[in-house]
Amino acid sequence: MTLDLTAILDEIGAEMAAATDRGKVASYIPELACIDPARFGMAVCLPDGQVFTTGDAQEPFSIQSISKVFTLAMALGRMGDQFWDRVSREPSGQAFNSILQLEHHKGIPRNPFVNAGAIATTDAALAGHAPSEFLGELLQFIRTAAGDDSIFINEKVAKSEEATGDLNRALAYFMAAHGNMANPVPLALGAYFHQCAVEMSCAQLARAALFLTELPDGPRLVSAARRRRINAMMMLCGHYDASGDFAYRVGLPGKSGVGGGIMVVAPQHAGIAVWSPGLNGQGNSKLGTAAVEMLVRATGWSVFD
Ligand SMILES: NC(=O)CC[C@H](N)C(=O)O
Fold first, then answer.
1. Is residue 218 pLDDT above 90, yes or no?
2. Ligand 1 pocket, mutate which of 161, 196, 241 (most atoms under 8 A from CB)
3. Which CATH number fits domain 5-62+200-299: 3.30.70.1050, 3.40.710.10, 1.20.140.10, 3.30.70.2570?
4. Is position 192 annotated as part of the catalytic site?
5. Which of 14, 246, 268, 294 lies at 20 to 30 Å from 158 by C-alpha?
6. What confidence tens digit (pLDDT) does each residue in 196-212 have?
7. Which residues bind substrate (predicted)?
8. Is 223 among the catalytic positions?
9. Ligand 1 atom 9: the closest Cα is on which residue?
10. What is the pLDDT of residues 290-301, one digit of tens each?
11. What mean pLDDT comes out for the span 35-46?
């Protein structure tokens, strides 16, 4: 069956434009609070490089927690499987910024995608380097994956989060007290806030997502074994306490961010990205989830099909 992705995306774009309940834009990072909830974009990038889009797919937005996928790839590259001594691989069933389980597990976060786990991951990826070096390398990784050198970090967003980041500081100091931070907390958090402030468009993110599937040619940023494992983590933990719901509705590895973006991998088929700033109660894009659900229904790309 040949898929008419142009028609499928047009239909999704029209349905999402008409939606009235669009969720709530994140307000705890002041710079994100002013984004218009009416924005919507989506892109699908095929392994041969063809890109299909709808809506505001070329508009850069704050990728926030989607960055955690790239940092995880970097930390695993630096430390190999030893990384897992510092971070578990289990779904948390808790909010992304919860501190509850950290006490229970003596400073070992549940997975690399909840905030505590992501801070530990950034700390591991720093590996004694200066934050600016780490951020340069992270940007290089993302630019190579996206095939686009124009991707940048929005300093205003990083500063905005730094100014309101006490909860993340609490998580980091709690881990430090248990010996699970290798760098001084302010240094690791500075790197973390900046990684979250990377801006990308759906078109760039969809292409970047292809680093997590088999490509005939193009850059190979991680090994096949590592790809499988990162995809597994995304499937089980990429949407926090709504990861089960995302797996049920979409059936693909995906990672959300509070900027309203979701990066999704359809193994062997495509890289997918969607952006709609309004969030559901678990901090994931409300319409973004619905849009990927529609796409998967139309394409049959769920890994469970
Ligand atoms: N879920 C998210 O996107 C959270 C990322 C955000 N920068 C934070 O640390 O709170």
1. no
2. 196
3. 3.40.710.10
4. yes
5. 246
6. 999 999 999 999 999 99
7. 65, 115, 161, 168, 192, 240, 258
8. no
9. 115
10. 999 999 999 999
11. 97
Distance between alpha carbon 115 and the CA centroid of its chain, in Å? 12
In short, whether 165's Cβ falls inside 6 Å of ligand 1 is: no
Atom of ligand 1 nearest to the CA of 257: 3
Whether pLDDT at 154 is above 90 = yes
- Let me know how long the chain is: 305
Residues 65-196, CATH architecture: 3-Layer(aba) Sandwich (3.40)
Q: For 13-41, what is the mean pLDDT?
A: 96
